[in-house]
Amino acid sequence: MKFFVDTADVAEIRDLADTGLLDGVTTNPSLIAKSGGDFIEVLKEICSVVAGPVSAEVTATDADGMVAEGKKLAKIADNVTIKVPLTWDGLKACRAISQHGTKVNVTLCFSANQALLAAKAGASFISPFVGRLDDIGHDGMELIAEIKTIYDNYAHIDTEILVASIRTPMHVKQAAMIGADVATVPPDVLRKLANHSLTDKGLAAFLADWQKTGQAIL
Ligand code: E4P
């Protein structure tokens, strides 16, 4: 499974990219607002740090406007993926932008039928929001499993399932068990994936015993 980080905080992205484990980045208007930076400048910087797909979301709500914004954003770097909302206009824009050879991430997906439409519109990625479904008492992971089943039923569908709105390490594990292609994870959750109290305890014990030997490897 590929790991994207869900943030527009360039310092965080740099730090995580240094691990070599980062495959891409997703942003949205709320994350750009939180970063406090200029959208275009922030996007340029992120694209210079990460070689993989960087999702940049349009803010127009009509198809023509989305296509125009998408064209402008796509010029920023080769790895820009245009993010459009899952509306009829968004699907129309998805078809047009992907036909121009630019990758499209269709976002704000909350149903399997929406995911089916996005695939038909030529999306490179579909972003189902698991956390927001959980928030209203639904089972976000059930949606991932449904989309996986549907996409696997049709060999010609090459849209990648990008699990979004992830809130916990458990979401990441469940997405991987279902076989989702990508998880876009907030930086703090991404860091938690490596943590285990028994790892810390075990390492402390090994180091204490090693010190008693008086040896050094280097
Ligand atoms: C994905 O591309 C979205 O930016 C993101 O995952 C939304 O997450 P949230 O529901 O925590 O805002």
What do you see in this structure?
- The chain has helices at 10-17, 29-35, 39-49, 63-74, 88-99, 112-120, 130-135, 140-153, 169-178, 187-192, 197-213; strands spanning 2-6, 24-26, 54-57, 80-85, 104-109, 125-128, 160-163, 182-185.
- The chain is an alpha/beta fold and 218 residues long.
- The protein has an 8-stranded parallel beta barrel, surrounded by 6 helices.
- It starts with a strand and ends in a 5-residue tail after the last helix.
- The model has no long low-confidence stretch (mean pLDDT 98).
- α1 (10-17) packs parallel to α3, α4 packs parallel to α5 and α8 (140-153) packs parallel to α9.
- It binds erythose-4-phosphate.
- Erythose-4-phosphate binds at residues 6, 26, 28, 107, 127, 129, 131-132, 164-165, 184.
What's the SSE blueprint?
Layout: E1 2-6, H1 10-17, E2 24-26, H2 29-35, H3 39-49, E3 54-57, H4 63-74, E4 80-85, H5 88-99, E5 104-109, H6 112-120, E6 125-128, H7 130-135, H8 140-153, E7 160-163, H9 169-178, E8 182-185, H10 187-192, H11 197-213
Parallel strand pairs: 1-2, 1-8, 2-3, 3-4, 4-5, 5-6, 6-7, 7-8
Helix pairs in contact: 1-3, 4-5, 6-8, 8-9
The site of erythose-4-phosphate has 11 residues, from helix 7.
